[in-house]
UniProtKB/TrEMBL annotation:
Inosine/uridine-preferring nucleoside hydrolase domain: residues covered: 4-301
Upper taxonomic lineage: Bacteria, Pseudomonadati, Pseudomonadota, Alphaproteobacteria, Hyphomicrobiales
Enzyme class: hydrolase
InterPro entries named in the record: I/U_nuclsd_hydro_CS, Inosine/uridine_hydrolase_dom, IUNH, Ribo_hydro-like
CDD domains reported for this sequence: nuc_hydro_IU_UC_XIUA
One GO MF term attached to the UniProt entry: uridine nucleosidase activity
Gene that encodes it: rihA_3
GO biological process annotation, one example: purine nucleoside catabolic process
Keywords associated with the record: Glycosidase, Hydrolase
Keyword check for Hydrolase: yes
Pfam family, one: IU_nuc_hydro
Name the UniProt record assigns to this protein: Pyrimidine-specific ribonucleoside hydrolase RihA
Annotated organism of origin: Devosia equisanguinis
GO annotation, cellular component aspect: cytosol
Length: 312
């Protein structure tokens, strides 16, 4: 099975992604979950990561905390979407599993440097601060990473936190820039994909109908965060972002896109955090990312529901 490290700011949709990965041990071996500041502050995100790991019944999976703020900028958070704890909605018990003492960035470096090259994939579900800091502190990890699969950015759907930028990239554009240029294989699940994967009422009812603790928790998470998105977009359902990263590992055939250059705007005040995607190959800049732009939503929700059924 494929070894991954989940770097995340849970976050209801992050939590669903973590559960999807932990429900799929035949294909995915989750080495650790590393928290980063993003949706809310690091303390809450790390605590939420522990709660979610515990909910899955996989207490052996260690949880680390990484950076508490972006590389250069003041942290921008999204309590208006995720609630004050970052994971409002379900009532989850205080976690028993500990937070690991080692810093998340050092864990990333140590793990990548001691494993066989190209055997570990990083799944990044929040701002890219931890991944970029690891690349700065130990540049040799770049050639040892199997792949970075990240949720972030947008091209056709443009922005969700500013008219030009998607949240994860906007919060730490300098970090995103470092990651895009690092040379490791990158696959991107942008808003173009996640806006096609909507948690409509029948899809959420099917998850609640599983009758297990995890299904109920996912239902409560997604009905909470959905409230905000339904108003914002006026669609039947709300986009489900981060779980697409794990679904891509499980069933890449659910997604389509192309390899092209992706660059990050870090200077302009108006468009900072914009992902500039050379989708039509109009430049000769290096083709650094597998940029996905569409998803099979029915197939995605069938997979998610089937996997959640396996959890407690
Ligand atoms: C991203 O921002 C966060 O709020 C979500 O968890 C997701 O990672 C979507 O723009
Ligand atoms: Ca996230």
């Amino acid at each position: 099975s494929r070894k991954i490290i989940i770097d995340t700011d849970p976050g209801q949709d992050d939590a669903v992604a973590i559960l999807l990965a932990l429900a799929s041990p035949a294909e995915i071996d989750v080495l650790a979950v590393v928290a980063v500041a993003g949706n809310v502050g690091l303390h809450h995100n790390a605590n939420n990561a522990r709660k979610v790991v515990e909910l899955s019944g996989r207490r052996e999976v260690p949880v680390y905390a990484g950076c508490s703020r972006p590389m250069r900028r003041t942290l921008v958070t999204a309590e208006h979407v995720h609630g004050d704890t970052g994971l409002n909605g379900p009532v989850l018990p205080d976690p028993i599993i500990p937070l690991q003492a080692q810093h998340g960035v050092d864990y990333l470096i140590e793990t990548l440097m001691s494993a066989e090259p190209k055997t570990i994939t990083i799944c990044a579900l929040g701002p890219l601060t931890n991944v970029a800091m690891a690349l700065v502190k130990e540049p040799r990890i770049a050639e040892r990473i199997q792949e970075i699969v990240l949720m972030g950015g947008a091209y056709f759907e443009v922005g969700n936190i500013t008219p030009a930028a998607e949240f994860n990239i906007y919060v730490d554009p300098e970090a995103a820039d470092i990651v895009m240029r690092c040379g490791a294989p990158i696959t991107i699940l942008p808003l173009d994909v996640t806006h096609m994967v909507q948690s409509t009422k029948p899809r959420l009812d099917a998850i609640k109908g599983l009758g297990n603790k995890s299904g109920q928790a996912v239902y409560d998470m997604l009905t909470f965060s959905e409230g905000f998105d339904l108003k914002k977009y006026g669609w039947d359902g709300a986009p489900l972002h981060d779980p697409t990263v794990i679904a891509y590992l499980l069933k890449p055939e659910l997604f389509a896109g192309r390899v092209c250059n992706v660059a990050i705007e870090t200077a302009s005040e108006l468009t900072v955090g914009m992902t500039v995607v050379d989708y039509w190959h109009v430049t000769d800049r290096p083709r650094n990312a597998n940029y996905l732009r569409s998803a099979d939503a029915e197939g995605f929700f069938a997979l998610l529901t089937e996997r959640l059924a396996r959890l407690p």
